[in-house]
Amino acid sequence: MISKRVTVLVCVVVIIGGRALCAAQSEGFFASWEDRVRATLAQQPSWPIPVVTASSGLLQVARTDFVRQIAPAGTDTWNYDNTKGFNVVPWYKLEFDALLPPYIQHNSKAEDGFGDVSLSLKYRLAAANEEGENYSVSFSLAGTMPTGSFKNGSLASTISPTLCAGKGFGRFDVQSTLGAILPADDTTKLGRVVVWNAVTQYHIGQVFLAGDREQRDFLPWRPERRPQTELCHARADAQQV
Question: Would you say the pTM of this structure is higher than 0.90?
Answer without folding.
Answer: no
